[in-house]
Structures are given as structure tokens and as C-alpha cells.
User: Fold these one by one.
Assistant:
Number 1:
Amino acid sequence: MEIRTFQVTPFIVNCFVVKDGNEVLIIDPGDAPASLFRYIAGCMVRTIVNTHCHCDHCGGNAALIEKTGAELAIHKEELPFLRAMEVQAQMFGVSVTPSPDPNRFLKEGDAVGVGSVSLKVHHAPGHSPGHIMLLGEGYVFCGDVLFQGSIGRTDLPGGDYHQLMDSIQKKLLTLPDETVVYPGHGPFTTIGEERRTNPFLAGL
């Protein structure tokens, strides 16, 4: 199994590609650059997952779906945000291609598979109402819930600081310290490192 990162959009989003054998899962394609298409050439892209549907995390959905025929999976509470991508983008002075509607809604306890790998879905609201994370063996794709030295913002529509902190405490800080954290922006980290050094987690 291989995890490859592509940094996309002016917001420097981490778009993750999980590859096992000839199968590929794409997480948070804020854009679909040529380098991404070159990497997945010849592979079977089964699923695209948006951890949440802020425009910087799903701007590449349309191009990838058109090229690969992959299914799109999100939490149902993110559908209004997905359908409002263009309005979101205008607020930040950028433009995006509207996304197709999802083929599948994900909820707590579901699994997303790629090859022999199975990732467990955790609902982690706070940054957005339907934010989800994908947990593998020893690693987690956490979107905009937790960053190295910081946490997701809660001042956007649907954000809730208390929900976010509850999600972090119950869904992330219960994981082993050595768990690798793949965030939506910025460098990778570990649960233990954030537990020890992240000022936003003090007292949790």
C-alpha cells in the first residue's frame, strides 16, 4: 500500500492518493493537476472521498469523475456545501468547476476499501457538520479537524468549536500516540506529538 500526497489549490490542500495494487482511492481532490493524472494512469480509481465539502477540498471532483468514472462519497450533511461550491469559491476570490452529486453517503462505522485496504469512517463534526475522517491501521486521514500545532477553523458556516473539540477528544485523542495524522493542510504529524505540543489541546 502506498500513500502519495499532491498539494493543490491556492489553499495548499493535501490531496491524498491511497494505492493498493492497481486500485486507487483519492481523498480531498481540491484540484486535479496533470501530475495527479499521470500518477493514476492505468489504475482503477474506485472511489473519491471528500472529508468535507469546502470548495478547496472538492474542486477536482468533476474532472476526476469525468476521466475515471469513480464513485463520489461524502457525508449526507455535506451535500448543501457540495452544491454551493461556486458560491463558496466566490467568497474567497477563486473559481471552481461544480461537482457532480455523490453516489454514496458515508456515515459513522462505514468502511471505504481500496485493494486489500479498508478504512473506517468516523464522523467528526465541528469544522463542518458532516466532516468525516478515514482511519486505517496506524494512520488517519483527518481532513481539517487537526493540524500540526493547530486545529480546524470554526468560523465558517456550520462550524462549531465545541463540536470540534469533542470530535478531537473522542475520535483522535483515543488513538495510540504513534498514529500518523495526515491532515488536510500542512505537514504530517502524530497523535502523540499533538497531545504533547499542540496548544489547542491543552487540558483535553
Number 2:
Amino acid sequence: MSEGTAPLGLPAAAPAPASRRRPLVRGVGPRIGLAIVLALCAVALLAPLLGAGDPFAISLAEELAPPGPDHPLGTAENGVDVLAQLVHGARISLLVGVLATLVSAVVGTLAGTIGGYRGGAVDEVLVRVIDVLLAFPGILLAIFITSVLGPSLWNVIFALCATGWTGYARLARAQVLALRDLDFVHAARALGASTPRIVVRHLVPNLLGPVVVQATFGLPGAMLAEASLSFLGLGVPPGTPSWGALIDQGTQYLMIAPHVALFPGIAIALSVLGFNLLGDGLRDRLDPRRR
């Protein structure tokens, strides 16, 4: 009898279940993206402990100094250390990105779920509001809002949320339109479940995968929008470490001190690349059609 063959008259043993779980992301690209995102989060959270220096320290004698032993990435106006500005600016960029994405995802998912499930006039109003907001480019509407409200961290977050929720609402509505006629929703309704319970307990959990993937792509967009607003002087208040403000400052000295704009530009590009690579991996992991 060969090894692994069951004796006559006895059923063959079922194969042992795999003990290893599938990793969250697979492939070189998504893992590189995950490493970049984790590094960015570590820099933002541990900024005071990294020894990058004081981002507000002024040294007029070292103004616009090139990279060297004392200042690895050089200095900007008034001798401010570029590395310290980058490290502390990562906190602002990530804070704006996370809060704007989180608020947009929650508001948009709930609005799209309710509109898609209820249908009728509620859904019609939601669709029309989304169409009106999408008629304007998001960054232009954010520029208008921040120019009216003034430069402020919370005004930037509000401006990005004012248009950012529409993408999540459209995604959630499309998913709910496909889910609301399935058997488990009919069963919950037949058992007397209320609309809020059906939405929260049965529909929203089925939307988490697509929403998480959408948020992974939306977060770098929010970070890039914050940098754009700060570049235009409409973002965080003057003097606050910001990658966009540092690029704006560096454009004045491109010929004599290109490092001032170069390094924050690289930081923004790497952050956007990291989140996009991670989003690609999560999409492949969470979308059953791609498994």
C-alpha cells in the first residue's frame, strides 16, 4: 500500500488545512509601498525623537547652505534646516491626509449606503448633489474654500472633505445597489430589522474592502492637495513646517540653492508612490475578482 493511501473499506483522510495565512500584500511593488508608508508613519510619529533638529532654529550665517555634515539636506531661508522641516512637515502632511480621508470615507460611505438602499427621492437628491460637486475640479473648490476661510490646518481639512466624500458615496451607492436585492438583505428585512440596523450590520461590512482600497488611493491625493494649497499660501499658517510651503520657498532659489525645493519634492513623490503601490496590493488582496 502506497504512503497516504487509506486501507480498504475506510474513507481517505481529509487533507490537513493550510496553517499559513495569506499575507496582507503580495508582490515586490506592494511590499515596497508598505515599507515606504511605514517609514513615513514612523517619521511622523517619532519626529521629536529622531534628532533632526529644531525646524524653527534660525542661523543667518548659514542661509541657503548646501548639504553638508552639519545640515545633511542643507538649509533654507534664514538658515532653517531642511531636514528638520521635512521631518516635522511629515506630521502635518500625514495628519491632513489621514483626517481628510477618514472623514470623507465615513461621510461618503454612509451617504452612499443610505441613498442606494432607500432609493427614490433620497437617492435622487444624493446623485444630484454629487453631480454638482463633481462639476467643479476638487482642487479649485478647495482653493476657493481656503481663500474664503483663510489659511488654517482645519480649514484645509474641511476644504478637502467638502469634495472628497463624493468618490466614496458613488462607490458605496454602486455597491449597495447590487447588494440590496440579495437574499441576506431580504431575510433581515423579513425578520423585522430596521433600516439603520440593515445598513450598519449588513451593508456597511460588505463595503469595507472597496472603501479601504479607495481610501488608500485617496490619502496620497489629500496629501498632495495639502502640499498644493500650502504652495499657494492657502494651506497651513505661515511658519508651520510644510512640504508645499518649503517647495514654494525653494522655487525662488532654484539656481543657487536647488536643494530647498528638491528634497521636499522627492518626499512628496515617494509618499504618493508608496500609498499607490500599497493600494494596488490591497486591491488585489481584497477584490475577489482578482484573486
